[in-house]
Amino acid sequence: MEALPAAFFDRPTDRVARDLLGRVLETTINGIRCRARIVETEAYLGEHDPACHAARGRTRRNEVLYGPPGTAYVYFVYGMHWCVNAVTRRAGLPSAVLIRAAEPLEGVATMRARRGFAVRDADLTSGPARLCQAMGITGRHNGLPLSGPELRVLEGTPVSRALVLTTPRIGVSAAADWPLRFFVAGSSWVSARAANARFLADAQG
DNA sequence: TAAAGGATTTTCT
DNA sequence: GAAAATCCTTTAC
Question: Distance in angstroms, CA of A83 to C1' of C10?
């Protein structure tokens, strides 16, 4: 399977987020290969998007967002978790797609070991920080191309149907009421947050 | 089964 | 000093 070219990511961010569903995230760390099929993404559009890390301009933390498309933006949150993004659009335009959940395909035993053997299968990779922990992605990978030896996004098989959720933030600080843009494939491996948003969307008709 | 609170540290005000 | 693109455990119903 081929890695997606940088040109794939040099497009409007919401389109990249939609098109990443069904693609395959691959890590090869210490010679151990893990693969997972992406089932949930989230688009962060740029400096004008208050949810985006670049909303308040360029800082040391977010400078990778301003770099070329097709690189990994890996950041640390809540004092303990890593999350991985694919940087989109040309250098100077700070936007990215957060990879929120995936379905384990290969290297599942390693994922289980990294996550702790007590976790249930359904919790292995169903969240942005869970996914990074299972795949072995850390700050070491920040700024690396997504077609490198350790970290890649492969062609996979794009999904024909997807759910697009534009929702208020759920379960985070109450003051933040700007919309988030989730893209979800039909899968049982989505995060609790997307499942909740999906439920709310259904409930509202 | 849902809701609430803690963990833990970087980042920016 | 406060908040953060989260996860996990505990507590209550």
Answer: 26
